[in-house]
Each structure stands twice: as C-alpha cells, then as structure tokens.
Amino acid sequence: MPSAKATLKNAWPYQQDRMNLPVANLESALPFYETILGFGVLSRSETPHRSAVLERDGIQIGLSENGGDPQQDGCFFEVSDVEMMLAELKATGFDNVTPDFKQQQYGDVRWKVLFVVAPDELCYSFGERQN
C-alpha cells in the first residue's frame, strides 16, 4: 500500500441506507472491504440479518444479507484526493476500477470521480471536490 492514503470525508448512499447495503454473503464480501478499501469491522450481528458495520476515517457503512439487490445500491464517497485513492486500489492489485478524471457536475459541485464495482456487485464512486 502507498504510505499516504486518501481520507474519506463523507458518504451518501445510492438508495436509502448506507448502513444496510445488500450482500449475498457477508463472509465472502468482507475481505474486499478490509484489504482493498481499507475498512475495519466495528461490529457484527446475526439479527435480523447477518450484518457488519465497517469504518474508515470515521465514515461508517453497513453490509447486510438482507435480500436486496447489490447491483442497485452502493455509495458515493467524498475523498480528499481521488488520484491517491486510485493509487491505493492499484497497490492492492485491484483492477475493477474506472477512473473518470473528467469533471462531473452534481448540483453546484464539480467532482473528479472514479468508479469501483465490488466483487459483491455493490457499486461505489469516489469523488474529489474541484474548485
């Protein structure tokens, strides 16, 4: 891993709840979040579904075997440095990432963005605010 790391600053879910992101199998999903994305597991639960709360840089997300469709969910993460985030991902050997360093406009904010599809099929965007 690179010595310098991007910092997660915020997270917005694509659907309703970043603390209840659907995965088919929690145990097979967790290594990606720990090894590739740098999250740590804060807690686990068996009820009402097998689930885990993950944290990186004070930002929490939750994975849950809740029967939802992972292809329809995920999060947009605001990061301190999107190119540094890309370097982190590449340093782990992960290659299912699409950098799109063109400017993208959402509301009144311009973003420099990269997209990641996790092995569990959840989709993530990492964006850096542009001046």
From TrEMBL:
VOC domain segment(s): 15-129
A Pfam family assignment: Glyoxalase
InterPro entries: Glyas_Bleomycin-R_OHBP_Dase (IPR029068), Glyas_Fos-R_dOase_dom (IPR004360), VOC_core (IPR037523)
Name listed for the protein in its UniProt record: VOC domain-containing protein
Species classification: Bacteria, Pseudomonadati, Bacteroidota, Cytophagia, Cytophagales
